[in-house]
Amino acid sequence: MSSARERSEARLLVPSLMCIALVVAAVGSIGAPLITSVATTFHVSLGSAQWTLTVALLSGAVATPVLGRLGAGPHRRATILVTLAVVVAGSALTVLPLPFAWLLAGRAAQGVGLGLTR
């Protein structure tokens, strides 16, 4: 019984990872064309608005080795699910009408998902 379950999970692994990679790539790259809009909407400088890209890449760079270490052990599934939950929470923070600091926190949470694709 458990071998059948393991085979079905193994068949779902590649499509799941492809979907994760597409979602994270879209979330990671969507901020570049919006920097000027972010600057005008939140009344911050262009340099401050560029942090919406930098913080996502920075959190992804920090999360990559951590997720790699956690995902190499017996908790691979839990690591992926928790990381996806963090990305969804970050996405929710970015669409809510909150101050600029919350937008940065949301983008940082979205950047954690970059660690899944590396």
Q: How is this structure best summarized?
A:
The chain has helices spanning 2-29, 35-42, 46-49, 51-71, 76-95, 100-112, 114-117. With 118 residues, it is an all-alpha fold.
Keywords:
118 residues; mainly alpha; 7 helices; 83% helix; elongated
Any overview of this molecule?
There is one protein chain. The chain is built from 7 helices and no strands. It is mostly helical. Helix 4 (51-71) packs parallel to helix 6 (100-112) and helix 5 (76-95) packs antiparallel against helix 6 (100-112).
Oligomer: single chain
| Unreliable stretches | none
Shape: elongated
In angstroms, what separates the terminal alpha carbons? 33 Å
Q: Into which percent range does the helicity of residues fall?
A: over 70%
List strands and helices in order, with pairings.
Layout: H1 2-29, H2 35-42, H3 46-49, H4 51-71, H5 76-95, H6 100-112, H7 114-117
Helix pairs in contact: 4-6, 5-6
